[in-house]
Amino acid sequence: MRPSLPTCEMLTMTLLTHIQSPRRRNRLATLTAIGLGLCVQAGTVYSAAPLSKLYEQPSITSQLATKSLMLDVADTGSRLVAVGERGFILLSDDRGHSWRQVQAPVSVTLTRVAFADAQQGWAVGHAGVILHTVDGGLTWHKQLDGITIANLDLAQAQADFAADPSKRNTRALRGAKRLVADGPDKPLLDIHFFNAQHGIVLGAYGLALETLDGGQHWHSIRDRIDNPYGFHLYKLAELDGKLFICGEQGLLLRSSDNGQHFTALQSPSQGTLFGMLTTKTGGLLAYGLKGVIYLSEDGGDSWQQIENSLPATLTAGRRLHDGSLLLVDEAGRRLLSRDNGHSFQASSLDNPTYLTGLVQTGDSGLVLTSLRGPIHLASSDNNNKEPGQ
Amino acid sequence: MNAKLSHHQQGPDTEAAVFDERSGSLAERLLFRHRAVVIALCALVSIFLGLQATKLHLNAAFEKMIPVDHPYIQNYFKYRGQLGESSNTLRIAVIPTHGTIYNAKYLDTLKKINDELFLIKHVDRAYMKSLWTPATRWIGVTADGFDGGPVIPDDYNGSAASLEQVKHNVERSGEIGRLVAANMHSSVILLPLQDGATAKGAEPIDYQALSQQLEQIRKKYESKDIKIRISGFAKVVGDLIDGLKLMQIFFGVTLTICAAVLLWYTRCIRSTALVISCSLVAVVWLLGLLPLLGFDLDPYSILVPFLVFAIGLSHGAQKMNGIMQETGRGADKIVAARQTFRRLFRTGLMALTTDAVGFAVLMVVHIPVIQDLALTATLGVMALILSNLVLLPILLSYTGVSRRAAAREAEAAKIDMTDAQHLRHPIWAFLDHFTQARWAGTAIVVALILGSYGYVVGSKVKVGDLDPGAPELRPDSRYNLDNDFMVTNYASSSDKYVVMVKTPRYYCANYDTLVKVDALEAKLQQLPGVVSTSSLAGLSKQASAGMNEGSMAWYGLPRNQGLLNAIITRAPRELFNQDCDLMTVNVYLKDHKADTLNRVVNLVDSFAAANNSDKIQFMSAAGNAGIAAATNIVVEKANTEMLMLVYAAVIVLCYLTFRSWRAVVCTVLPLMLTSTLCQALMVNLGIGLKVATLPVIALGVGIGVDYSLYILSITLANLRQGHALTNAYYAALLSTGKVVILTGITLGIAVATWALSPIKFQADMGILLAFMFIWNMLGALILTPALARVLLAPAHEPRPNMVAVSD
C-alpha cells in the first residue's frame, strides 16, 4: 500500500519548517529519522481516514476521573472547575476538598478552562474543541471543533488571498488547505476572555481564533500573528493594555493594538515558553522548558534570566491574592516569589507528581492540577517546606 | 432353629479341621499353589522398580497447570510466539537498604546481578529487562530536538554527574513503577523464561535447579547494603519443590503413626510389619513406574504415594484382621490366608477398582497436572491390588500371625459373639442402635439437615485462589513477603491479565483501533482490583506528550496517523507483534483472587461482544492472571462434571458388588453427605476450589467407598442368610467394622498432620482429606446401617419362623 498523501505531505511540511530554522539541526536530524520511519511505515501501516470521533462522543463517567490527568483549574467565584483527559470536567463547591464529575459533550483531552464571570465559561482541548457553559460549569455544549476551525482558517486565507495574492497569502492559503485535509488533529492550548464577549483561543501549529460575541461566532486571526513557521502557541497574557503570546521554541509576540497585530519580540529563550505571568509592579515573567524563567520589566523589550535550582519544565503559574507569584513544574515543585519575580523559592509536594495548573481558593488554600487529579493544599501547607531546594 | 451367624460371605464351616485343597476360586488355587513364584516375581518387580524409582524427578511445569483445551488458552497458544513477553517471567527486585538506587555501588551490584542472571539457562535474553539492558531507553525532547538513548548512558562511570544523568534518564523513561519503584528505593530485573509452553522446541525448565541458581545469586549479593526479592511462577515452583522435600518427614510421621496404631491393635509385630511393607511395596512400584512411563512427580501428585499407602494400609489391615480371626479359630496359617483371601478378595477388588475408577475419572479435567494425578493414583491403586490383595495374604500364609495375638483376638470374638444384647462393648452397642427404627430415623433426619446445610453453604464455594500472592505457599512465607513487596512498590504487579487484540495486518496502530483499545482500558482501570493497564494506546498518549517537549497538554491519542505510525517504531516490542496485526492490553491486578479475575473476564467478554468486528477482535487471555482465569472456568465446570462421573462410577461398581440398588443407596448417600459437607468446610475455612483442591473430593469418595463396601458386604451377606439387621450389622462390625474404625481414625490423623506443611495447598488437602476420611467412616458406621434399616431390613426381615439369635 502506498503512503497516504496527507501523511507524507504533513511530514514534509514539518521537515521544511525545521529546515528553515537553521539553529535546530539536531531536532531536524531526529525528525528526519522519525520521518523516514514514518514514510516507510506509511508504506505498510494501514492508514484510512479515522472513523472514531472522540470530539463528538460524550465523556464517560468514571470514578477515576478525580485521579486522572487534570490540566487546568479555574475559579468561577463560587466554584472550582477543573478539566483534563478523556473530556473529564470536575467541579468543587467546597474550595477543592471534594470533586464531582460532570459530563462533557466530547471525550478528548481538555487543556484549558476560563470563566468570564460566575456563569459563563469556556474550555478548550484536543481536536480543536471549544466548549461553553452558561451555568457555572454544570452543563457544557460544544461551540466549535477542529473541522470547523480548519474551514474558518481556509475561509480567512481565501479572503486574504483574494484581496492580495502575495507570496505570504499564497503560503497561508496552502497551509489552510492542508489544515482542512489533516482533519481535527490539532489541540487548542490556551483560552483568554477579556470580557464575556471578546475572547481569543490559541493552539498548535499557530492556530488562533477570536470571538466578539461570546463564542457564537469565531474567526481565524492567524494572519495577524507573526509566526511564519507555525509554532505552537501556548499562552496569552495581558499587561498594561498590551497583549503577549508565548510559544514553541521561545516564540514571543506582542500586540500593542488590542490584538490587531502581533509582532515577534527578540526572545531570550530557545526552548519553548509554556506560560507567562504578570507581576503587580508591571513586570512580565515567561517560563517554560527545562525550568527557564525570564523577567522583563520594560514590556518585553529586554529580559533577564531568573535563577531556578532544577531544570524541570515549568508548566503553569498564578499571581496570588497577596501579589506573590507561584509557578509549578513537572517535578511536582512549587516555586514562590515574594519579590515580584526576581527570585524564587522551591518547595516539593510530599508525593511529587507532574503539576499542570493551579488556582488560589477563597480561603487562601491552593488547588493544583496534576497527573493524578486535583490536589488540595490548605493555606498552611502553602509555605515553603524545603526552601531553596 | 438358630441360623448360624457368619462373619463372612460364604460362611463355610471355618472351624472344620480338614481344608479342601481344591476348594476356592481358580485364582485362589493358582496363586496359593505357586506361592513361591508369586513372591519371587514380586521381589523381582520390586527390585527393578525400586531402581527405577531412584530416577524419579520432582518438578512442576508451567504448561502442565494450564487447561489446554479452553478457548482462552487456545488463543494464548495460538499467539504466544508473537506476544513478546512471556507469561512465565521472574521479577527480581534489588533493593539498597538505605537511600535511593542512585548510588554507584548499588548500580554496580545491579549490573553484576544482571549479568549473572543473563547467563541462566532458559532466560529469554532478548526480552530481559533491567536498568542495564540496552532495551531500556528513555525518550525525551530537549530544546535541541528529539532525543533518546539507553537509561544508563554508554559513558556511565559511576561519578556523581553520571548518576545524575541516570536519574534524569529514568525519570523520562516511563519505567517508574515498572522497572524502578515509585519511591526510587529499588529497581527490578525482569527475567522472562522460555519453556515448552512459550517457545517451540525449548526443553522443559528444571525449576528446582533454576530456583537454586537464584538462591545462590541471592546469597552471593545480599549484604547489609543490598536486599534481593524475587517473585514469579518459577520461584513459586522452586519454593514448592523445596517444601516437597519436607514431605519426606510427613511421610515418615504418617508411617510411624500408622505402624504404632496397627501394632497397638494387633500386638503382633510380624503382621504389622508385613502390612506396612506391602503397602510400601505398592508405593515403590508406583514410584518406579512413573519414571518408566516418563512422568515426574509434581507438587500435586506428590500426595498420591501417601494416599496409596493409606489405602493399602486400610486393605492390608482388613486382610490381617481376617487372618488373625481365622487363626484364632484354629486354622493353620495357609488355611487362614486362603480363607481370608476367599472372603475378602472380591470385596477388596471391588473397593480398589472403585478407587481406581474414581481416580481415573479425574482424567476428564483437561488440566495436565490433574490428569497426571489421576493416572498416578490409578496406577498406585492397581499396584495395591497386587501387593495387598495378593502378595499380602501369600506372605501371611508363610509367616502367619503371632499365636498370642490370634488367641487374644479369638477370645475377644467369642465374648463379643455371645453378647446377644450387643451391650458389652459400648461402641458396638452405640453403633448397633442405628439399626433400630427410632435411632435410624433420627440419624437420617440429622443427615438431611446437615446435607441441606452443606448444600446451601457449599454452593457458595469460591473458585480459584482466595489469597493474594502465591496461595500455594503460606502467607508469611518468604515468597509471599517478596511478592507483597512487588505489589506495594510497583504498579505493574506480578498478576498480569493480557487481552490480545487482533487486527488486520499493519492495522495495530490505526487510530480507530487505538480509540477502541483506549476505551477498553478506561473501563478496565475502573474495576476494583486493577492496579494499572498498559497498551499501545496508553503509550501513544504518553508519546504524544513526549514528542511535544513533554507537555502534558498534548497527552491524548494523536489523531494523526503518521504520528501514530512514528510512535510504534519506538514502542516496546511486548506491546505488539512484528506484522502489526496483534497487540496486547496488559492489565496489572492487585491479586488473582477469583472475584478480581471474574470482573476482568466479564468486562473483557462484554466489551468484545460489543466491539468485535472484522477489523478488530478482543481476545482473552494471556498472562498468569489470564491463565488463572481460564483455569478457574475449567475447574468450576470440571467440579460438577467430575463429581457426577465419580458417583456414576461408584454407583455402577457398587451395584456390581451388591446386585441391589437399595444397598447402592445405603453406600452412596453417606458419601454424598460427606462431599457436600466437605464443600461447606472449604467455604468456612476460606479454601477455594482450584487445581489443588479439585481432586480432593473425588479422592475422598474413592477412599470412603471402601469403608461402606467392607461393612455393607458382610452385613448384606448375613441379611441374605436371613439374619436380622441388628445381628447382621453387629457381625460386620466385629469383623471388618473394627478395622474400618481403626483405619479411618489412623488415616484421618495421619493426613491431618499435613496441616503443618509449609505448602499451603497441601495443608488444605490434608485438612479436607482428614475430614473426608473421618466423615466417610462415620457415614459408613452410622448412616449406612440407618439407611439399611429403612431400605434393606424390610426386604430381608426374618420370617416369623426364622427367629434371629436368641439364646
Automatic annotation (TrEMBL), chain B:
Top-rank taxon: Bacteria
Main localization, broad class: membrane
UniProt keyword annotations, A-Z: Cell membrane, Membrane, Transmembrane, Transmembrane helix
Domain spans labelled SSD: 280-398
Entry keyword Cell membrane: yes
InterPro entries xref list: MMPL_dom, Mycobact_MmpL, SSD
Signal peptide coordinates: none
Keyword Zinc listed: no
Spans traversing the lipid bilayer: 36-54, 246-265, 272-293, 299-317, 348-367, 373-398, 642-658, 693-717, 729-755, 767-792
Coiled coil ranges: none
Subcellular localization, as worded in the UniProt entry: Cell membrane
Membrane topology reported for the UniProt record: Multi-pass membrane protein
PANTHER family hit by this protein: MEMBRANE PROTEIN MJ1562-RELATED, SSD DOMAIN-CONTAINING PROTEIN
Name of protein: RND family transporter
Species: Marinobacter halodurans
